[in-house]
Every structure is written in structure tokens, then in C-alpha cells.
Specification:
This protein has helices at about 55-65, 80-90, 95-120, 120-125, 145-160, 175-190, 205-215, 230-240, 255-260, 280-290, 300-310, 355-360, and strands at about 5-15, 30-40, 45-50, 130-135, 165-170, 195, 220-225, 245, 270, 295, 320, 330, 335, 340, 350, 365-370. By secondary structure, it is α/β, with parallel strands linked by helices.
Length: about 375
């Protein structure tokens, strides 16, 4: 047990390695707020979150001006209490992305600190359900790619042992999406998992039309078919679709997931540890989904989600999109298309502090408190 003495704030901006285009946007950058918490014993925990190109300075301001000053002097092991107090202190701006992303940077740092103090990896401290998880790839399925590129990537990843691939949909016509999926399915065969992601681009009527087409190709899930806050439309789609409906990356509270699960509006939960506000609420959503008999297949953040998917029993796959290569010294350990849970104490992320400090946006950096 040790009190929080100092918190360091940094933000780096990471350019994607490949062009990432979906039905509503192109990823131009990845702002990555980083929080380092030091306790009275000199132990340090590091956490982070992210944006897709905008909003990073707002997150850093919320951390600097509102949240982090409240951490100094708190008992670092009281993670649940701290999370609830931080949420309450921002009640006028919650629920929403900026607040959740700021909370996540703090909460993941506290979990990293807890695990390091205990000498245990996160996946074991958070539940220890399994020590590895199968991968599926999204990185070669972007909407702008020609069909032959989709096929090449899917075949390559299948050869590497990956269990599946996700293809972005949302072309102007059903025929265009059908043609692309047909080509990939014909190439990889019936046993390779194919999922699709519409990135909230469809109306209800269009989502129903596309769902009928998707069922022809044994699609594993239909991700974000419509805007995330239209729960009624998702209930209707789930009742009409033979393809499981997946939601979660654009939801920011435990209660939102509760409503979707309780009302039968989805059958795959894709809770994102950054957008839900950290590991503390992520685990609550995962356990709630388990109680409903629903799988958790989290969005993005594979370097952190590998440990969380291994912590719970109802997380069958992990999304492969490299995110932190430029600021780490080692990536996921992958064997035959399966990611192994990190065994190092903490989150298991090998931060490259020279690279981080070199990339940090000076005007957004700060140190609060003192050791």
C-alpha cells in the first residue's frame, strides 16, 4: 500500500503505418495520451488511451486541470474508489468520449502500478482465464482497398495461422460489398472466419438489406451497422438478422452496454478499454456480458486488450491492428496466429521512453506533485 506522489502527463501523435479508411472516416493520426503514476515507494505505473486524430488536447486539459490533481495523496490500491470519484468529479461532462478517454489513461496506469507492485501480469491479476487468444486481422480489410488486395491479405494471414479477417463494408451498393466478400470467401474457404464492419454508416432499412446479403457468406458478425445510440434500430435489426450484431466501440458507459444486453440489441460486445474509461469498467462489462451468454471481442488496442481477453473466459478472439510499434521496444508475441498473454508484471507493454520523450508534444506535457 502506498500513496500517489507524482503524476507525469505526456501525449504523442502516431501516424498509422497503413492507410485506414472505413465508411465514414480516414485515420490521419492517433493521439496517445500517456499517464505515469509514481507512488511513495518509487514504483511507477503507466497508462494510456487514444483518439483518432482529434480531441487529444481536450483530454490532456481534463487530466491536467481536473483529474490528476485529485490523485495526489490517494492510496494507489483503491482503484475502484478512485475511478468512481473521478467519474463523479466530471459528472457534468460524462457520459462521453473525452471524459472516458481521460479516465482510461488514469485507470490503466493504476492497474499497471498494482500489477507491478504484486509482481504479476495483468491477465492473471484480472482473472487469469487463459494464457493466449486467437487473432483475427483488420489491417488488410480497409474500405479503399481493391478486392484483389483484400484477397491477398486474407490468404497471407490465414497462412500465418490467423483465425479470421474483418472486411470493411459500406460501398454505395449492395452489389459492390457482395462482390468483395464473395471474392474473399471463395479464396479462404468456409472454415476461415469473416466479419464485417459498417462503422455506423447504414440506416435501419439498409442494414436489414445488407444483413440478408451477409448471411450468404457465413459472416461471423455485422459490426456497428448503425449509429450507436439508436438502440431501438439495433433491436429491430437483431430480430431480423441471421448474422450476429456487434456493438461497443462507440459506447462510453457500463449502463449503455447493460441496455443493449438487456434488450437483446446485440450478440457480440466490443467494449474498448479506452472508450469505456479503463480496465475497471471494462471488466464489469465483460462479466455482465458473460452473464448474458454474450462474447466479448474488444475493439482496437491489441497491446492492452491481449491481457484483458486472456483475463476473462468469454473473449474468443483479439483484433490485430498494430498501434504502438513506434513507441515500444517489443510487440505482441504471436505463435501460429495466436497472441500469448504477456508474462511481465503490469500491462505487459514494453514502452520505449526515448521514443516517447522525443515525440511528446511539449505544450501538453506536465508533472504534478513530486516524489
Amino acid at each position: 500500500m502506498a500513496l500517489i506522489k507524482q503524476v507525469e502527463l505526456l501525449m504523442v501523435d502516431l501516424a498509422p503505418k497503413v492507410r485506414r479508411t472505413d465508411a465514414i472516416q480516414t485515420f490521419i493520426s492517433q493521439e496517445t495520451p500517456i499517464v505515469r503514476i509514481t507512488d511513495a515507494d518509487g514504483q511507477v505505473g503507466t497508462g494510456y488511451s487514444y483518439t483518432i486524430g482529434t480531441g487529444g488536447p481536450a483530454i490532456m486539459s481534463l487530466l491536467h486541470e481536473t483529474l490528476v490533481p485529485r490523485l495526489i495523496g490517494r492510496e494507489a490500491e483503491e482503484i475502484g474508489g478512485i475511478w468512481h470519484d473521478m467519474l463523479h468529479s466530471t459528472h457534468a461532462t460524462a457520459v462521453g468520449a473525452i471524459t472516458s478517454l481521460a479516465l482510461a489513461a488514469i485507470d490503466t496506469a493504476l492497474w499497471d502500478l498494482r500489477c507491478r507492485r504484486a509482481g504479476q501480469p495483468l491477465w492473471r491479476m484480472a482473472g487469469g482465464a487463459k494464457d493466449r487468444v486467437p487473432l483475427y486481422t483488420t489491417e488488410g480489410g480497409w474500405l479503399h482497398l481493391p478486392t484483389d488486395a483484400l484477397v491477398r491479405d486474407a490468404l497471407e494471414m490465414k497462412a500465418r495461422g490467423f483465425g479470421g479477417a474483418k472486411i470493411k463494408i459500406g460501398k454505395p451498393t449492395v452489389a459492390e460489398d457482395r462482390s468483395r466478400l464473395q471474392a474473399v470467401r471463395d479464396a479462404v474457404g468456409d472454415t476461415f472466419h469473416l466479419m464485417v464492419d459498417a462503422n455506423q454508416s447504414f440506416s435501419l432499412s439498409e442494414a436489414i438489406r445488407r444483413a440478408d446479403m451477409l448471411a450468404q457468406f457465413n459472416i461471423g458478425w455485422f459490426e456497428e451497422p448503425m449509429v450507436a445510440d439508436n438502440i431501438g434500430a439495433h433491436i429491430t435489426l437483431s430480430q431480423h438478422s441471421a448474422v450476429p450484431v456487434a456493438v461497443g466501440e462507440s459506447m462510453y458507459s457500463i449502463s449503455q452496454f447493460k441496455d443493449y444486453l438487456q434488450m437483446g440489441a446485440c450478440s457480440i460486445v466490443q467494449v474498448d478499454v479506452a472508450r469505456i474509461g479503463g480496465i475497471t469498467p471494462w471488466l464489469k462489462v465483460a462479466h455482465m456480458a458473460e452473464a448474458f451468454g454474450v462474447s466479448v471481442c474488444p475493439h482496437f488496442l491489441m497491446e492492452l486488450h491481449v491481457s484483458l481477453t486472456c483475463a476473462v473466459p468469454n473473449a474468443p478472439m483479439l483484433e490485430y491492428i498494430p498501434q504502438l510499434d513506434d513507441i515500444t521496444t517489443a510487440g505482441l508475441t504471436i505463435v501460429d496466429g495466436t497472441a500469448l498473454a504477456p508474462e511481465d508484471p503490469g500491462l505487459g507493454i514494453a514502452w520505449n521512453w526515448d521514443a516517447i520523450n522525443a515525440r511528446a508534444v511539449a505544450k501538453l506535457s506536465a508533472t504534478i506533485g513530486g516524489v
